[in-house]
Amino acid sequence: MRRIRQSFDEQLEQLEQDLLEMGAFVAEMLAKAMEALVEQDVTLAQQVINEDDVADDMDLNIEQQCMRLLALQQPMSKDLRTIGTVMKVIADVERIGDYSVDIARTAIKLAATEYFKPLVDIPRMAELVREMLGQALEALVHHDLELVAQVVAGDDAIDKMWYALLNELEEIMEQHPEVVTQAVALLLVARYLERIADHVVNVAERVAYMETGQLETLAPSHRADYQPDAEL
Amino acid sequence: METLGVNMFYDDFQAITDVSIAFPARRITALIGPSGCGKSSFLRCLNRMNDVIPGARVEGEVLLDGHNICDSGTDVVQLRKRVGMVFQRPNPFPMSIYDNVAYGPRLHGIGDHAQLDEIVEKSLHRAALWEEVKDKLRELATELSGGQQQRLCIARVLAVEPEVVLMDEPCSALDPTSTFRIEELMTELMADYTIIIVTHNMYQASRVSQFTGFFLLGELIEYDHTTQIFENPRDQRTDDYVRGRFG
């Protein structure tokens, strides 16, 4: 059997490569936004806000490539699923960039006041979220369903961290009303991170679809019948 | 219509190996595969068109309403009335548009003019050709465009009220606009007929059919819902073919 459509294969590889690049760029935005938050670094936060335009351009460029391949190459089977997956995944990755900008804006807002306690849990949560994003993108490129499972497991841990932070910050606000402004801002950052993790799970679900052809919700917390342990 | 363990030979060469397939009624089934895979040979088994090819021999059963059409007692003329066929190149008879459509009914004994008029009009309507030819029914069919000729051939098949319509690459000689018209027509005809189409154009198969069978080297490799075949086929060979990864 002779392999043909070499140039189409190369364009598909380029598409995956561009997506990986976008993912790495957005992961770096998140890392910098968190560093800006922890170090109260306004300049770094502003840099993240400016970088959002780059992420948006990457998103549009990849979408355009996908549309072109759909129109000109009439992909079928796994090629079709790959392009469909990339189109969905860029929307999730772009949204992660937007949440990173939200965190950077919060960093600017909180930069002038000393934190009422050192930030430990939120950076830990962000670290796990970044690791999940790396796993999801690696799963896409290496067709690795084991990594998909690890992402889903990571989301469970994120959900637990989020609920724990929610309870802790609620308590602090009740006992120390003078830190409410700062605590609400930090609570929002935790919420952004929890949402980012959900987008990462979306990416992982798409990778599973690309590989198996089965569309399904993998994370229990994303299913309609899910009952959380703690209540919002 | 259904086949059970069909094998087909051209002298010593086996062109079809053990093909069993059940065609859902009033649905379009597409048979796809590379050139020489046996899909057209198989299609011809379904109304015994292979009978006219020297050295061709069919084994197994081809069932139409439970009766094996391969039995020697089968009335082949009657069979081809029930299982009509449209060919790759439009092949109108060198006679008028009207006479082309009336040819089959006349052959089957209908001589009444009013009745023939009715059949011709109805068939041309069904083939989406009536509006274009109603004022020139007595003109030569060969004067029509390629797309119109092919719709005329479809009208000719429909005129004898078949149950199954076989189409062997019906659009391969047509331009894109005529192709889309024929495809649209097929979708309309599906309400009343079981349609089986052989096509080398898998995009056509994906556009018009509900079921698809993939043939390779005379074997039916995979048969499933068209969406399954083109989105997520089970067999690697089908996957390679629909993705254009071998030739």
Layout of SSEs?
The complex is a heterodimer of chains A (232) and B (247).
Chain A: H1 6-39, H2 42-73, H3 77-110, H4 121-142, H5 145-175, H6 180-212
Helix pairs in contact in A: 1-2, 1-3, 1-4, 2-3, 3-6, 4-5, 4-6, 5-6
Chain B: E1 2-10, E2 13-22, E3 28-32, H1 39-45, E4 56-64, E5 67-68, H2 76-82, E6 83-86, H3 97-107, H4 113-126, H5 130-133, H6 146-158, E7 164-168, H7 176-189, E8 194-198, H8 202-208, E9 211-216, E10 219-225, H9 226-231, H10 236-242
Parallel strand pairs in B: 3-8, 3-9, 6-7, 7-8
Antiparallel strand pairs in B: 1-2, 1-4, 4-5, 9-10
Helix pairs in contact in B: 3-4, 3-6, 4-6, 6-7
Account of the protein in words:
The model of chain A has no long low-confidence stretch (mean pLDDT about 95). With about 230 residues, chain A is an all-alpha fold. Chain A is globular, with a radius of gyration of 19 Å. In chain A, α1 packs antiparallel against α2, α1 runs antiparallel to α4 and α4 packs parallel to α6. Chain A has one domain: Methane Monooxygenase Hydroxylase, Chain G, domain 1. The longest helix of chain A is centred in the first third of the chain and has 34 residues. Chain A contains 6 helices and no strands. With about 250 residues, chain B is of the alpha/beta class. Chain B contains 10 helices and 10 strands. In chain B, the strands form 2 sheets. Chain B has a 6-stranded mixed β-sheet, sandwiched between helices. In chain B, a hairpin with a 2-residue loop joins β4 and β5. In chain B, α4 crosses α6 and α6 runs parallel beside α7. Chain B is globular, with a radius of gyration of 18 Å. Chain B starts with a strand and ends in a 5-residue tail after the last helix. The chains are: A mainly alpha (about 230), B alpha/beta (about 250). Chains A and B meet through α3 of A and α8 and α10 of B.
